[in-house]
Amino acid sequence: MYEELLRELGLSPNEARVYEALLHTGEASVQDISLKSKVHRRNVYDSLSKLIEKGLASEVFVKGEKNFRAINPRRLLELLKEKEERVNKVLSEMQAKYEAVEEKEEAYLYKGIEGFKNYLQDILKTKETVYFIGAKAFWLDPRLKHFLPRFNRERKKAGIKFMHLFDYEVKEQKPEILKVVGKPYKFLPKQYSSPTAVDIFGDYVVTFVGVKPGQLYEEPIQFVMKSRRLADGYRKFFQFMWNHCAEE
After folding, report:
1. Cα–chain-centroid distance for residue 221?
2. CA-CA 20 to 30 A from 155: which of 8, 16, 38, 54?
3. With the C-alpha atoms ordered 168, 169, 171, 177, is the resulting torsion angle positive or negative?
4. How far is CA 21 from CA 5, 34, 73, 174, in A?
């Protein structure tokens, strides 16, 4: 039930299974933990040792026998804070090195849902108005439901504005997106709908293919072009289309 989340927090597959088994059993012997977690007995010992190091498990002696139990799951939040503190100690130094590299025009790909999240982080990092051409409301994709609320809060806090030119179908098929993104927005004429979309922000031009209202491709791909000159040109294209689309 929790294995995937625990692995995302940095536990190995076996550690995640053993910790979850402890949550369900309370105090338990290595044999019981092995049966419950379906982890081989000799690997249970190693996983318990690592969990104890991380403060997620402890030893309990009952009538001379050594059992184990889980530590309160709130310890997971403490682990996250400790990792954040370690990153913060070196972040300014890393940022300085990153910004010291001369900015170049470049092109690359983002793949998968994690790649899509990188694209959203680029928006937050840029902190400039985002212009959407042929927007499909694919932010409503179920795979993003846990990520987007935080993104939207950070986006609003940073004062990042959106200007959407939606595909015509969004009006009928996914009207709920309009409340999510807010005004201003317009709709392209029906005859200009396509399976592509283009987003422009800062010095980024991001192109999507194979998208449809409310849903990303099974394994989404974003073609990213980073060039201020190119982005400025696309913003002019957007403005022309915006001026020639009817008000809602």
Report:
1. 15
2. 8
3. negative
4. 14, 9, 13, 42
Q: Is 102 left (phi over 0), alpha (psi -120 to 50) or beta?
A: beta
CA-CA distance, 35 to 37, in Å (whole number)?
A: 6
And the tokens for 241? 């289309």
207 - beta bridge partners?
198, 223
Helical H segments across 54-139, by residue range: 75-100, 112-126
- Residue 237 CB: number of other CB atoms within 10 A? 13
d(CA 166, CA 175): 11
d(CA 86, CA 95): 14
List, in order of start, the domains of the chain with CATH numbers.
Answer: 3-74 (1.10.10.10), 105-243 (3.30.870.10)
Name the pTM for this structure: 0.61
- Non-local (6+) Cβ contacts of 42 within 8 A are none
